[in-house]
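Worked problem 6 (solution included).
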Amino acid sequence: MPKTRQEKENLIKNLSYDLNEAKIVVFTNHLGLNANELNSLRKILRENECKYQVVKKTLLKKVYQNKNIEEEIDKLEGGVGVIFSFGDEIKGPKAALKFSEEKAKFKINGGIWNKNYLTGNEILSLANLPSKKTLLSQVAGNISFPLKRLDYILKYNLQRLILVLESLSK
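Solution. The predicted structure is:
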């Protein structure tokens, strides 16, 4: 049964809200997947602070008409599903990548991050990045390494000076 105008307006309003709240949005092609497979995807995404919604392209274009990416929406293939990632930016694309590896019919078409449209390959590149926590710990380690090295060098030179002075005193 077709949706009424009011239902469509509510859907557009909810999609706009999710778009503004999400840190990254991923567009997918879910053609060929059955309801159970989509429900398992939704469950995986909920565990990763994400939401999956199947949307008609016409409604999606209305949501994005003021965002200068209508042309990109037209290029999306198949049945359009949208992943809204509300937590860590990488969790949604990572979960989608893992699911697409398990289900060959599920494709990542593109997405929006920092108000810029990304192609499917760019989203896959993001999905292959380590988590934010891992990246931050690597940066912290790289920042602290020179200080630890300086500390070691100063202690080592001080020990050598003490050994030289001890040998001179004997």
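Discussion: The first strand starts at residue 24 and ends at 29.
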